[in-house]
Amino acid sequence: MSELPVRLILASASPRRRELLAQAGYAFSVEAADVDESVRAGETPEAYVRRLAEEKASAVFTKHAGAQFATASSSWVRSSEAPLLVLGADTTVVCDGEILAKPDDAEHAKQMLRKLSGRTHQVLTGVAVVARAGTASAVEITDVTFSNIPESELDAYCATTEPLDKAGAYGIQGYAARWIPRIDGDYFNVMGLPIARVVRLLEDASQESSGRSV
User: Fold this and answer.
1) How far is CA 185 from CA 44, 79, 140, in A?
2) H-helix segments, the chain
3) What domains are there in the chain, each with its CATH number?
4) Crossing angle between the packed helical segments 106-116 and 151-158, to the nearest 10 degrees
């Protein structure tokens, strides 16, 4: 089990991220962050997912921490309560340099999946941990290869709600698994949370927050 001498909040409403973090043995609470997910002009996909992960984690951290972290004499420093860590994450699909976020509707989902059909694309997840000592973040990239998607299967899939809440209009753990013969990289990254990378970030942040940093 991954017991941390801290209080951990996952700044995400994603049930997949919740399941993966719990699967890794962490105890945590969940609180979604409300941030603008628009892509900024000239922003690369890597910078985009990293920024959103940091903004989500920072928004929740600030809400809970507030001004009590402002000075070394704060009540937080004097408190015996476990230090706070907030984990944020954001995942997107990239094909030909284009960011494919969540589709607007079924037709938009079909357009995305036709673009991915028979090709290799990238899934990027930015992860960020915010603590009193600062913010640490990283980006994980996995290559995903799709086989050719029959139009009849595409129609049936996009008639469901499954593609609508997922970047690129698919989840590797769902129906779309039938179209994915190969991935290169972290499978859990494609699900939305690269656990091995997250564990390293949380352990480093926990050590710093507990005064045991190297």
Assistant:
1) 20, 42, 9
2) 15-23, 45-65, 75-78, 106-116, 151-158, 187-191, 195-209
3) 7-209 (3.90.950.10)
4) 140
Cα dist from 152 to 102, 110, 149, 174, 175, whole Å? 22, 11, 8, 17, 14
Q: What average pLDDT does the chain have?
A: 90
pTM, entire model? 0.88
Instruction: Quickly tell me which residue has 């909040």 as its tokens.
Output: 9
CA distance 3 to 203: 10
d(CA 83, CA 132): 8
- Given the residues 36, 90, 96, 104, the one annotated as active site: 90
Please write the tens of the pLDDT for every residue from 69-80. 443 334 444 444
Query: What 3-state DSSP class applies to 178?
Result: helix
Q: Running DSSP on this structure, what letter comes out for residue 57?
A: H
Beta carbons of 114 and 190 less than 8 angstroms apart: no
Residue 186 annotated in active site: no
The mean per-residue pLDDT over the stretch 32-37 comes to 91
**Interval 35-55: pLDDT, tens:** 999 999 999 999 999 999 999
Nearest to 52 by CA among 144, 118, 133, 126: 126
**Span 154-170, mean pLDDT?**
96
d(CA 61, CA 69): 10
CB 163 within 8 A of CB 103: yes
Token digits of residue 73: 């004499």
